């Protein structure tokens, strides 16, 4: 069976205030054309269909258009909700939409009820695991401790139990929205850390033929059977070096995997430039970046006059300006920035405790309290998104 794996559409998202709806519409045209040209038999969308729980009307209209395009192409589509989506809103009308061949899987309780498709070699069972927020689904999966590995592991136990009851030649595909160990994140994914741990081991998915992942925006291979498609467009400058693609997966009669990366259309390249303003304006090697969306980091010790206007004269699509002045190593501002670089919220909070105590950091009990406070804030944010 030939499968097209995509994810992280983030409909309604802008890029530094640049509207991306036209670029997202062009991606859908490309996706449907690929389905027809490459004889795709199933499309998988591994979550984050929308960028937020209550998307703007234009994003909903674009999603509606995409559903009609896929249905008209006659290709079954399996789609799960991600951590940016409101699972309840995305899942409205799922039973009716099923009849058009668009299978929305947004309810954690239904993770072991697959969409079963057929080819010349038998059945392929597609299990949709929507994003599982540990604190919200721990009761459903009856886990003692709310963590990503625990709830995903419990969901996969249900999947394996259902698969074991099916004919022996049934092949299996899982869609999941998670941070799997070994994946490389970017700046544009929302933090899903719980208890100081965001990632789950790839081994949690053992026992199935292919795992179509969403959440991380870079296309990557965790194992030959576990892959991220990545987002079809760049949503942050940290993705400047990404090659935006979809995975074309050929699932053989015995579960063999063939994989090919198919490029997505690029509306405009994304680039980062760094240096003193005069250097950026005069450097001939930067000519290739002139048509790109630009993030410019200026290292001038003193902020130059009218930097954005002067940059736009050469790079007309400069949309982000960062100041990172060169400082002497002994400069206290430089050392403070260096201390914070690469540190997460928990580490910064622990450093603050140590600072106000004259060097005595938090003990184990206090670290647990801090960790719980950060987890509660993240869960509250998620709950508010769901309530909307």
From TrEMBL:
Residues 1-218 form the Calcineurin-like phosphoesterase domain. Residues 267-355 form the Nuclease SbcCD subunit D C-terminal domain. The keyword Phosphoprotein does not apply. CDD domains: MPP_Mre11_N. The keyword Nucleus does not apply. Pfam families: Metallophos (PF00149), SbcD_C (PF12320). Transmembrane segments: none annotated. It comes from the Bacteria. Keywords: DNA recombination, DNA replication, Endonuclease, Exonuclease, Hydrolase, Nuclease. GO terms for biological process: DNA recombination; DNA replication. Coiled coil: none annotated. GO terms for molecular function: 3'-5' exonuclease activity; endonuclease activity. Gene3D superfamilies: 3.60.21.10. SbcCD cleaves DNA hairpin structures. These structures can inhibit DNA replication and are intermediates in certain DNA recombination reactions. The complex acts as a 3'->5' double strand exonuclease that can open hairpins. It also has a 5' single-strand endonuclease activity. Heterodimer of SbcC and SbcD. This is Nuclease SbcCD subunit D. It comes from Streptomyces agglomeratus.
């Amino acid at each position: 069976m030939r499968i097209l794996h995509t994810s992280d559409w983030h409909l309604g998202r802008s890029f530094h205030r640049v509207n991306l709806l036209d670029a997202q519409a062009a991606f859908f045209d490309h996706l449907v054309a690929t389905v027809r040209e490459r004889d795709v038999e199933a499309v998988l969308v591994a979550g984050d269909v929308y960028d937020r729980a209550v998307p703007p009307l234009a994003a909903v209209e674009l999603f509606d258009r995409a559903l009609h395009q896929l249905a008209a192409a006659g290709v079954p589509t399996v789609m799960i909700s991600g951590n940016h989506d409101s699972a309840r809103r995305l899942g409205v009308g799922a039973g009716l939409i099923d009849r058009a061949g668009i299978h929305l899987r947004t309810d954690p309780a239904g993770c072991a009820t697959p969409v079963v498709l057929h080819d010349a070699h038998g059945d392929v069972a597609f299990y949709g695991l929507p994003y599982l927020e540990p604190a919200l689904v721990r009761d459903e999966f009856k886990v003692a401790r709310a963590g990503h590995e625990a709830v995903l592991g419990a969901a996969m136990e249900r999947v394996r139990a259902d698969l074991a009851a099916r004919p022996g030649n049934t092949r299996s595909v899982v869609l999941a929205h998670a941070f799997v160990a070994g994946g490389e994140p970017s700046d544009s994914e929302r933090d899903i850390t719980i208890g100081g741990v965001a990632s789950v081991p790839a081994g949690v998915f053992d026992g199935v033929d292919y795992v179509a992942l969403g959440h991380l925006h870079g296309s990557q291979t965790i194992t030959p059977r576990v892959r991220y498609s990545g987002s079809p467009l760049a949503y942050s400058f940290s993705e400047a070096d990404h090659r935006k693609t979809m995975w074309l997966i050929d699932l053989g009669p015995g579960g063999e995997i063939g994989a090919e990366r198919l490029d997505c259309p690029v509306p405009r390249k994304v680039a980062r430039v760094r240096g003193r303003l005069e250097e950026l304006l005069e450097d001939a090697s930067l000519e290739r970046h002139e048509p790109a969306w630009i993030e410019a980091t200026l290292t001038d010790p003193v902020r130059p006059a009218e930097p954005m206007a002067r940059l736009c004269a050469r790079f007309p699509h400069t949309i982000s300006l960062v100041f990172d002045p060169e400082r002497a190593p002994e400069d206290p501002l430089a050392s403070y920035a260096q201390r914070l670089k690469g540190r997460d919220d928990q580490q910064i909070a622990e450093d603050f405790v140590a600072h106000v105590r004259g060097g005595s950091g938090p003990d184990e009990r206090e670290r647990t309290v801090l960790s719980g406070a950060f987890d509660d804030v993240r869960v509250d944010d998620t709950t508010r998104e769901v309530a909307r």
